[in-house]
Amino acid sequence: MKPAWAAFAVAVLGVSAAAADVVLENALVLTMRDGPEYSRGALLVRDGRFAEGEPAPDARRIDLGGSYVLPGLAEMHAHVPTQRLDVPGYREDVLFLWVANGVTRARGMLGHPSHLELRGALARHEVLGPALVTSGPSFSGGSARDAQAAAQRVRDQKAAGYDFLKIHPGMSADVFQAVAEAANAEGIRFAGHVTESVGLFASLKAGQHTIDHLDGFLETLVAPERLENRRPSWFGADLVPFVDERRIPAMVAALRTAGAAVVPTETLLENVSAKLSDLQAREENAYLPRNLRIGYARAVGGFDADAATKFLDLRKRLIAAAFRGGVPILLGSDSPQIFNVPGFSIHRELAAMVAAGLTPFEAIITGTTAPARFYGQEQTWGAIAPGLDADCLVLAADPLANIAATREVVGVMVRGRYLDRAELDAGLADIRKRYE
Questions:
Q1: Which of 73, 192, 310, 414 has a CA positioned 20 to 30 A from the CA of residue 11?
Q2: 230 with 238: CB under 8 angstroms?
Q3: CA distances (Å), 354 to each of 10, 104, 237, 286, 319, in order?
Q4: Can you tell me whether residue 55 is helix, strand or coil?
Q5: Which whole-number Å values give the CA distances from 407 to 50, 101, 231, 292, 395, in the listed order?
Q6: Can the peptide bond before residue 336 be classed as cis, meaning omega within 30 degrees of 0?
Q7: Per-residue model confidence as pLDDT tens digits over 386-421
Q8: What pLDDT, in 10s, does the model give residues 22-70?
């Protein structure tokens, strides 16, 4: 059974992007090409892209009433669901929740064969959702135990058409090396976790192109003997008392030299170290199926308040050091994941970047121009300029004055298709009702 809002989506998607020009009028536009300055005026959208020139006589004109417009945001650590029998329509709900919060591009980090078909359907506007970049099924200690078989799995995923490979924990050093060599030979990138048996520096040297969750960072900042006979916790939280921050510049230099990017997923760590009662009180939990709310609750705990504060403070210093050191920081919240509700969590991640010391404009860069530049796609997306995908987020208040304004969504445009507040609210209400 499809969600009720899907009828609306079909109606929207059934209209060709070429049917008529769209003009977004009376807007304050943060193009991301002109620095932290707004331009006032109108945006012409034609065939799903921002355009120059005069609109057609039958153009659809939308008066934004002086609202603030910025490029659509990228969720660079997304978990795209597969279809589920226990929650019909769940995948479509997740896609809609991303869009309703201004996420117009997603990097899927938990790949599945069905995502290849979904990627094409999204590109053809047959399904409402963000443009998708997807990994294949992950490489881990469980899925990749033999070097020769793992190398063949790399070649198979490349041939299948996946965009990159996902690294999960647990591989042996020789299997990881076989994966890296095969990936480099095939010209397919690999990203994700740092393989514990390899370490951060060797992973970077082998060609890993993103480090997600700051994985391996704290292990790199302690003396090697501290890694022996330990009971590892969330991304090195157990190592905080032993970190030597004098090692940070060398780590940042290694990231920069390797040309790697960092996807912090800071909100994930804020969640697992928070009070469960605080997490359960969030209004956006209404957009989580009941079984996920129960499962997420079991994953929270194990931190006392002082340890949590020190862990998160250190992580934010590391994010700031990497950003100021010239390492690309890419916005990613790890959603849906432990109390990270799709779409809503990206705004929490923006706030976390500001809490780490980035300005609101710099935080927005991490979800717009930075990932587009990192992937060599600046002429396709990430900014508002003629010829780029017409993805944008319309806001009631100025996000440069307060990053929390990104939550005040007036409307969203997804590659030329505009969804106003009433349409977004209708879809959200349907999800809430079904998840009660």
A1: 73
A2: yes
A3: 37, 21, 22, 26, 10
A4: coil
A5: 24, 7, 39, 23, 8
A6: yes
A7: 999 999 999 999 999 999 999 999 999 999 999 999
A8: 999 999 999 999 999 999 999 999 999 999 999 999 999 999 999 999 9
